[in-house]
Amino acid sequence: MASSLDLEREIETQNALFNELRLSGSDPAGLEEVKKKLGELKRSLGQAKAKTAADGSAASGSKDAAAKKKGRILLKTPKGTRDYGPAEMFCREYVERIVKDCFTTYGGSCLDTPVFERKEILAGKYGEDAKLIFDLMDQGGEQLSLRYDHTVPLARYLSMMGGTNTQSKLWQVGKVYRRDNPVMSKGRMREFSQADFDISGTWDPMIPDAEIISLVCTILSKLDVGEFTIKINHRKILDGIFEVCGVPSEKIRTISSAVDKLDKLPWADVKKEMTEEKGLDPSVADKIGEYVKHKGGPELLDQLLADPALSANPSAKQGLEDMSLLFTYLSAYNVINRLSFDMSLARGLDYYTGIIYEAIVEASAPPGFKANPPVDPSSAPSPAPKKKASKKVKNEDGEEEEEVDESQVGVGSIAAGGRYDGLVGMFSAAAAGDSKPKGSVPCIGISIGLDRIFAIIWPKWVEKGKRSKETMVYVMAAGDGLIVERMKLVKELRDEGIKVDFLAKKKPKLPVQFAAGERDEVPFAIILGENEIKEGYVMVKQQKWEMIDGKKVKILAEGDEKGEKVDRGQLVQWLRTTRTWKEWEDGKL
Amino acid sequence: MASSLDLEREIETQNALFNELRLSGSDPAGLEEVKKKLGELKRSLGQAKAKTAADGSAASGSKDAAAKKKGRILLKTPKGTRDYGPAEMFCREYVERIVKDCFTTYGGSCLDTPVFERKEILAGKYGEDAKLIFDLMDQGGEQLSLRYDHTVPLARYLSMMGGTNTQSKLWQVGKVYRRDNPVMSKGRMREFSQADFDISGTWDPMIPDAEIISLVCTILSKLDVGEFTIKINHRKILDGIFEVCGVPSEKIRTISSAVDKLDKLPWADVKKEMTEEKGLDPSVADKIGEYVKHKGGPELLDQLLADPALSANPSAKQGLEDMSLLFTYLSAYNVINRLSFDMSLARGLDYYTGIIYEAIVEASAPPGFKANPPVDPSSAPSPAPKKKASKKVKNEDGEEEEEVDESQVGVGSIAAGGRYDGLVGMFSAAAAGDSKPKGSVPCIGISIGLDRIFAIIWPKWVEKGKRSKETMVYVMAAGDGLIVERMKLVKELRDEGIKVDFLAKKKPKLPVQFAAGERDEVPFAIILGENEIKEGYVMVKQQKWEMIDGKKVKILAEGDEKGEKVDRGQLVQWLRTTRTWKEWEDGKL
């Protein structure tokens, strides 16, 4: 009987194959076969797992050891990480290109920091989540950790630059690392890509804030993620509410993190946490419950401004004034309809000092969720699925982990951030050996979860059978193979910037060359022949592919079954003026 | 007295500032001042270091500890790593874009693998250099290491995919990690970027090999790295030579690595290593010396083919036939003049099985080096600088390191690679618990050192005063600030894909807005006014910058001192049809 790991590996391979085949428009019979094989493998895996469970815990964690005993190595990527193959990367590069293009459209400049930082830089920034930081081994030198996000390295950079940073808008795109329990199918990974945009410096109130909100709306509109909502709140309003309701000041942060769970837990559970775990007076909790159930637009702001208790609280008053100005600006940017002022949004990180926000899409939510919920300030917080009783299991490396029911997990928020005015000053103070924040560099930023976006977009690409390569021309030859002549033409076209390929065989048969070009779905097939070379022309066939009944079908241009005779000297110009070329350039991505 | 570290940090900051200022065309007086400050800091650093040395070794390694005692943190990036700021990243993104574009022009598809691998995947692949691998801390799970190159993760991926990999040409761009002694100014880092292109699969002889050589020539020609040479050799020819000269088979690899040092050491030193350290008969060494001194083009191949001893050796014969076919193909690609068939090129890694190559440029070599040396087969190996007696010192973390004289170090080869036909099979065999390579997936690849290329190109960019931002339009307003009107216009233009910015102040003075737009060297300044808004037009000024006597100077379009009145409804179209817009699009990068 094959081991679970072998089976898992084989399933992974077959899954990848299935997607590649589907994308390359293979015939349905072939697809069916791979599908059948996948089914069988999954059944075998189920049996193997059941057997392991029956063998008891002594057996778990032993596969790795068993492999080692046999001198075998496990061919896999580390837990919570994966490879991205050619078709997937084509989609990921597309997403990244759109995001970067929006970043520069908003005046951003790129920053790149190392993938690891000195451990002390990350220390004390992530609260309870610090346990998720990946540390490097001490190999005789510095104590290093993999970066957990882009925000802390940015703050370190800004603090190091002092006043010499010449660009207030900086963006970073790259991977960050968290030793969390992965849910791979939803883009929750241990290694994942984030695209950050931050605005630093002292500017007039709410202008950078509005820029960031408008930016994230622009990006999500350009990416095909479906309907989305930006949930927004303000730390100063939240803190004001807590004060008004009578939360003791030392409990404000811990009560705030209880509120943050309202998107996953019903109010009753959150109240229980506040009162039973955190010792809050139930009447205080009830007052908080009245406030945090509110969601809405600018009209909610009017309602809160009319609340005499809130208006009398300096923190809430400041927050409400900020929100009011922000809403004015967001109307100018024409994105106000995307906003949901959500009093239950609190966000985990301690360092936020002003507005906080999260972008959610219907496709990214757990089952039962609706984006853009109708505003009904009198309704109770929407019911959320009960937290599943989680089960701790040991994985193949003997590491204890929580078992996650993937069907109950959404992709989560696909972008999030907020204002953090104190973080850069914290670094400057710590570097000076001072306990008080030093020099103020106010900041606001957004992190976009590229893997979560990919998890939403990729299935649509597969369904649409999108091309996954940009190669425009496949150069072939009849008869003797004409390898040197093929190379010359290929080089000539590439020198003109045209993306060209050919079959790396000396004398391949013509149908084999056609098949290779068709696998890449190239729009132009150029065929060389000895006579044609002597007479100074080539044959060109224009071809395109369409999804018909879930299957890729090649369609030749009208009257182009035999191809067209094109003068060799005019070839590049001819190619560029064809309708096929223009169609590709227009609808390219 | 300031500590060395404080000084080093300050020098780094001032250096960055100097470059930013120079790029942004600051006035010479300001530049001079920063330069002067830099000089002072460097002198202070020298004094501080001398003092530390005088204090004896007890003092070294204590700065970190001292900082900790005071509760201070060191604001710096880890050893051998650095941040890249906006202007530098603009140049790096440009380099990356050219490289990726060439990769797709040659039919490549992107692959992405995790930044760390299971430790056993990297084990046994790098010989002596394995000590340079960064390991992650064991935090209760897998044993992980940061990737050392892209080749081993690629081979792991290909082995996992088995026969299901549908693309033979795969490229990867990303960072790799080596705990080596950094020479930062030459792009030798502990974290550095490599761009790899590999062709896998069974194809006809030397066709993929010619594709890779042509590819690297295309890339280096497109990047402004100056004259370059591709040094090339063949492992089978080298092995044949060793056999013909009488090297015992068990000594072939170790003698090969001695030969590999000929680009850094004179022949006498290499011979000494062969005979005294490695016990080779001096007469055998002399025979090798006769062979490896040869450098040349196709004529050298003829000379070697005429050597009866080599022709009689099966390994050498196979290698010479390969080279002969390769040269035929490289003539078809029209890149033969870039090649230098260099018998002393051996390359360190064990896994190469066929041709091996390195790209070098004049700018990347140590002092005294010349690219494209005249071919003179009778000459002795060119004299090379003597290896400096290196000194071990302790750094601030108490880590022992070699002191490097940066002025004597070149950037080194900027691209290198070779054929490795056995690596994928090694993984498949190891996974099956088999000691013999299993299944053959022949591969050939190239790694391009992006940091080394950046180290060559960046000073030229600074000198030319190249723009480091793409923002096209700066929107301003006279009088009351018109913040909402500015936002509306900015959003309108951005929605059309135009890169636009504005000053995040509510009522900024007009000169302040102009200064901000000029710092970004935007070609279009658009000025809003209340009357203009009512009447439906805007004022537009076209401006460009030129380097005059090492200083950036703003030049207004002819007759454009006052700007032009443009109809608001026609603005986007008007902008796109101006000469300024077209000049920017053409000469953009």
TrEMBL record, chains A, B:
Q: Which Pfam families match?
A: HGTP_anticodon, tRNA-synt_His
Which portions of the sequence form the region Disordered? Answer: 371-408
CDD domains linked to this entry: HisRS-like_core
Biological process terms from the Gene Ontology for this record are: histidyl-tRNA aminoacylation; mitochondrial translation
Tell me where in this chain the Aminoacyl-transfer RNA synthetases class-II family profile domain is found: 92-457
Which reactions appear under catalytic activity for this entry? Answer: tRNA(His) + L-histidine + ATP = L-histidyl-tRNA(His) + AMP + diphosphate + H(+)
Q: What spans are recorded as compositionally biased (Acidic residues)?
A: 397-406
- What keywords were assigned to this record? Ligase, Nucleotide-binding
What SUPFAM superfamilies does the record point to? Answer: Class II aaRS ABD-related (SSF52954), Class II aaRS and biotin synthetases (SSF55681)
One Gene Ontology molecular-function label: RNA binding
EC main class here is ligase
**Composition skew (Pro residues), residue ranges:** 374-384
Question: For this UniProt entry, what's an example GO CC term?
Answer: cytosol
Per the UniProt entry, the Enzyme Commission number(s) are: 6.1.1.21
Tell me the protein family, please. Answer: Belongs to the class-II aminoacyl-tRNA synthetase family.
Q: What is this protein called?
A: histidine--tRNA ligase
